[in-house]
Amino acid sequence: MLRRIMTVTAALAVCATTAFAGDDDVSHRWAVIAGMNLSCPTMASVERSPRDAGNIAAFASPQCNVLLEYYLPQQHFSVVGGYNAETVQWFDSKVDATMQNIVLGARYYPLSKRFALQPYAALMTYTNVAQRHEQHSMSAWNGDGGYGRNYTLRLPRVSVAPAVGVDCYIFSSLALEFQYGFPLAIDGKAHVTTTCNGSPDVYRMRSNMHRHNIQIGLKATFPFRFTSADGNNLFSLIEMALGIYDPADEKKQETKKERRRMKLGRVLDSY
User: Rounded to two decimals, what is the model's pTM?
Assistant: First the structure.
């Protein structure tokens, strides 16, 4: 399985390098990014009860995001805007909430466009247009005991996120995008209190709604181009998926040093 993953990665890298060879003059004016994102909130303070000593905060179920990116006339800079839904959760999703965010930000790409891997740094803002306040109570009981839980959430209206990411171009106008950001919530609060087995002891968790965010998407740049090199790469990927072609089976090209060594060996063998 690991060998197959490494083979696929190598094939994608070869395809991307071929598609971008000599393509430094290409100017992509705008792009559409569609994918998903996952968030995990941080905690400001927590008191762990014996019953709730597991994962209090974890990555929630993935949510969708759709973004538009416009490349500025100055090289290396772009602006990004769009929509994403973002879910945060605690206590194995027993306490959760979803934000509906309007996204706006800017990106900086340090490398030339001719490179297939395009890392970037970004500064993003997320404006939650859904409701901000939630307050609920719950309880669960069984033969071994139970718990009661009260929580109050104040979802942030605005979050500001420094982020880093990379676009991995598979073809000339199609890339896989990976991004990590850390949205800093402005005026976000979460308070959860838990009691176990009817005990008067109260265990508290507090979060300021800062969170880790991972985004994975597919990016199409326009004007859209599909070159003959892209077609060859597509056929190679299909053959690889069907098991017909394996890049590891190709004969490696000899280096100049290796050719000299072989010539010297033939000369010595002639004596």
Answer: 0.75
Per-residue confidence (pLDDT) for residue 19, from 0 to 100: 47
Question: For the CA atoms of 166, 172, 174, 176, what is the dihedral angle to 10 degrees?
Answer: -30
H or E, element range at 259: helix 256-270
- CB neighbour list of residue 171: distance below 8 Å, 6 or more residues apart: 15, 16, 19, 226, 230, 233, 234
Whether 226 contacts 15, CB under 8 Å:
no
| The residue to which tokens 């087995």 are assigned | 197
Check residue 235 and give its pLDDT: 55
The pLDDT value recorded for residue 249 is 57
Strands, E, within 109-171: which ranges? 117-128, 133-142, 145-154, 158-171
Give the residue carrying structure tokens 């990016």. 219
Q: Give the count of beta carbons closer than 10 Å to the beta carbon of residue 185.
A: 26
- Strand 174-181 versus strand 211-222 pairing type: antiparallel
Q: 194-227: per-residue pLDDT in tens?
A: 888 777 888 999 999 999 999 999 999 998 776 6
Dump pLDDT digits (tens) for 95-134: 899 999 999 999 999 998 888 899 999 999 999 999 889 8
Spatial separation of the C-alpha atoms in residues 165 and 20, rounded to whole Å = 19
Residue indicated by tokens 């994962």: 55
The residue among 215, 244, 254 whose CA lies nearest residue 35 is: 215
Q: How many CB atoms lie within 10 A of CB 12?
A: 18
Q: Which residue intervals of the chain are DSSP H helices?
A: 2-20, 228-241, 256-270
